[in-house]
Amino acid sequence: MSQSEPGGSGPFMGRPALVVIDLQQDLVLPSAASGIERAAGQGDVIDRAERILAAARVGNVPVIFTQEAHRRTGIDFGRELDGSESVHCLEDEPSTGLWPTLTPRHGVAHEYLVVKRRYSAFFGTDFEILLRGLQVGTLVLIGTLTDVCVHYTFVDAHQRDYHVRVVEDCCLGSSTARHDAALDAMEYLQHGARLLTDAVVAAFTSGITATHTAAPELTEVGR
User: Fold this and answer.
1) DSSP string of the chain?
2) Mean pLDDT for the stretch of residues 52-57
3) Does any domain span residue 85?
4) CA angle (115, 203, 68) in 5-degree steps
5) What is the pLDDT of residues 113-152, one digit of tens each?
6) N or C: which end of the chain has fewer CB within 10 A?
7) Looking at the domain assignment, is residue 221 inside a domain?
8) What are the φ and ψ backbone dihedral angles of 100, each rounded to 5 degrees?
């Protein structure tokens, strides 16, 4: 089933994939150290992300982890430093690594890594090639920041005619106000886009998603 075809059950159209956006170890650093403002609630988001990931694995749902990483020379920051963010997510810094419990399992089918230089998971990566190979119809987004990387990935997916869902209690914004505004903007684009963790866990573990044909195994995309 291609991304433009109807079908599927529950909150998804076609085959879902879980997209874990930039849940990296700098998540718990102060903004002065990480270079990025964040609202409170990191621990709750990590706990919910672990629940959703476990459910995706039970339900045989493909999982794509994204990681923002910049060369230490700064050559690929572009305009990212023109606003509120300072230098962040430098390659080889321990804080740039994925959160230890939210990483792809090596050698396991349906778990992938996309390393990106910019906010959207689509920009300058092989993300869309991977989605097409997996025959994904619905992207289920969790992670950070709601108003930046999650939002821009949502918009790019929407413009490519994917169905997109955002798990609003498993995302963290740069502030509560910007988190709420981004969620409202995403719901404006696709009605029914906003879901809660419990609903996603139930859908992933219902058995609906386990009937799709397995895709060829890949372990890393984007390096």
Assistant:
1) --TT----STT-SSEEEEEEE--BGGGGS-HHHHSS---S-HHHHHHHHHHHHHHHHHTT--EEEEEE-B-TT-TT-TTGGGSS--S--BTT-GGGSBPTTSSPPTT-TTEEEEEESSSSTTTTSSHHHHHHHHTEEEEEEEEE-IIIIIHHHHHHHHHTT-EEEEEEEEEE-SSHHHHHHHHHHHHHHSTT-EE-HHHHHHHHTSSGGGGSPPPPP---B--
2) 97
3) yes
4) 10
5) 999 999 999 999 999 999 999 999 999 999 999 999 999 9
6) C
7) no
8) -55, -35
In a domain, 7, yes or no: no
Q: Which domain holds residue 197?
A: 15-209
Residue 99 lies in a domain: yes
Res. 2: pLDDT tops 70? no
The pLDDT of 171-181, averaged and rounded, is 97
Q: Domain of 146: which CATH number?
A: 3.40.50.850
pTM above 0.90, yes or no: no
Judge whether 138 and 165 are in contact, CB under 8 Å: yes
Share of residues in the chain with pLDDT > 90 (%): 68
How many structural domains does the chain have?
Answer: 1
How many angstroms separate the Cα of 206 from the Cα of each of 109, 111, 136, 203? 20, 20, 18, 5
Q: Distances in Å between the alpha carbon of 31 and those of 37, 111, 169, 174, 175?
A: 5, 30, 21, 10, 12
